[in-house]
Amino acid sequence: MARSKPTSASRALALAAVLALTGTGLNACAGAHNSAAEIGSCEVLARYTPKDGGGGTVKIATALTGTEGERFEQSMERFEECTGIDVVHEGSDHLEENLRGRADGTTDWDADLAVVPQPGLVADLAGKDALSPLSDVVGANVELGWDHAWSAAGTVDGTFYGAPLMASVKSFVWYSPETFARAGYEIPATWDDLVALTDRIAADHPKDGVTPWCLGMADGGTTGWTMTDWLEESLMATGGLGAYDAWANHTVALDSPSAVNALGTVDSLLMKSGHVHGGRDGALSTTMEQAGQQLADGSCLMMLASSNFETMLPAGTIITDTKGRTGEGPSSTPTVGGGVAASDGTEAYSGTDTSATAGAGATASSGPPASVSAFLVPGADDADGGPPVLVGGDYLVSLRQADGTSEAANAVMDYLTSAEWAQQRAELGGVATANRGVDVSEVSSDVTVRATRILQSRQSVIRLDASDSMPSQVGTRALWTALTSWTAGELDSKRALAQAEAAWPDE
Description:
Elements: H1 13-16, H2 36-39, H3 42-45, E1 57-62, H4 66-83, E2 86-91, H5 95-104, E3 113-116, H6 119-127, E4 131-132, H7 136-145, H8 148-153, E5 155-156, E6 159-160, E7 163-169, E8 172-175, H9 177-183, H10 191-204, E9 211-213, H11 225-239, H12 241-248, H13 257-270, H14 279-285, H15 288-296, E10 300-305, E11 318-319, E12 325-327, E13 351-353, E14 371-376, E15 389-399, H16 407-416, H17 419-428, H18 446-456, E16 462-464, H19 466-469, H20 472-487, H21 493-501
Parallel strand pairs: 1-2, 1-3, 9-10, 11-14, 15-16
Antiparallel strand pairs: 3-15, 4-15, 5-6, 7-15, 8-10, 8-14, 12-13
Helix pairs in contact: 4-17, 11-12, 11-13, 20-21
């Protein structure tokens, strides 16, 4: 592939905003999948052995830590055994810092490959000539399994630098079905219903310490990203897709009236007294993991988090479908938290109803919930097609090397972008995918199954997380910083978004 150096870090925004995948329904699998059991045979993996006979070491850097990092490493174990390639994984909270330092020549940190969580960062690194174009083999793998819009997000000035690797549905509200059932709460059908439910929960629990929302924003140097998800969800619901697309494409300013109104709506939803533990200060000092603990112990009842949030839930948490049912049979496997993952929750579902489990209660005083599930953030109205869904993705890149990309690194990239790896990783749990080569019948968690079906379906109305695709000095710096100050009460909605707008680079 010919290399063309990008002229602007904002080039990724050309696709950014609109991943509107609408069409004829769920696609057939892009190719024959191989289950984790089938991949146990080296015959399936033989084609990934480099032509030079295999061997070598490939260092891959990611932001995957904890359970996510462990499962990523597990997904590569059989590949290593069969190909002789040693895949060294470095999961770090400082991935972006390391990548930028390498690109700027200010550090001797190095890796062969990286998994980048924002397409905007892919564009930035490509603009600094820090990436090598991906091979035609990788391109063919992606074309086979993923909708074009996903690969377009990793394409900068016509050159393919970032291959979609994992995806998530961000528009999930995690909750306890049995708690809702006992309290008489229903899953909201519209955004107005969500607002009304929030107020009702707060009114039902004036003094017992139970809040409508769990909110964790503390995340070191990346504090603030949680609120970008809230802002974008609110903008889609209150302003509509047209307003969201214009904001995401930067055809209107970040402090446009619709965005300011959307952030004001978030303020009334979350920042009223008693709506989150500790109010503004509590949100800023609470991590996502701590918020997940609050959800699991029933001290807050709803939490906006992506489909992969189950990997951050505390040990013993049970994942169910929206009716509180856990699966039975081979698809019922332990989750990361040591609980039981549910089956897909379809009409043919056969499982155990936990909504009346003894000891599970609607309030903190009557005991913690036995299980959690998730429902989609409702749209402005109860449209037949369902609400638009905010999604995110991780992108595989090849870091430019003086002597070129090694055969071993190419083999790793070939495998990571294949349907075989996507199936293997999906079966390990906690990660959804838009790869149409994955068979969800082998995936245990109901939330992950539903997320994958949404991502695979051309009927879904999907929008890529706008902040992830913005120039990174805006989307992952200025906007996070401004929304942190907004959460602290230091800036109002207009001033916060104007501060982020001021950081947008000149074209």
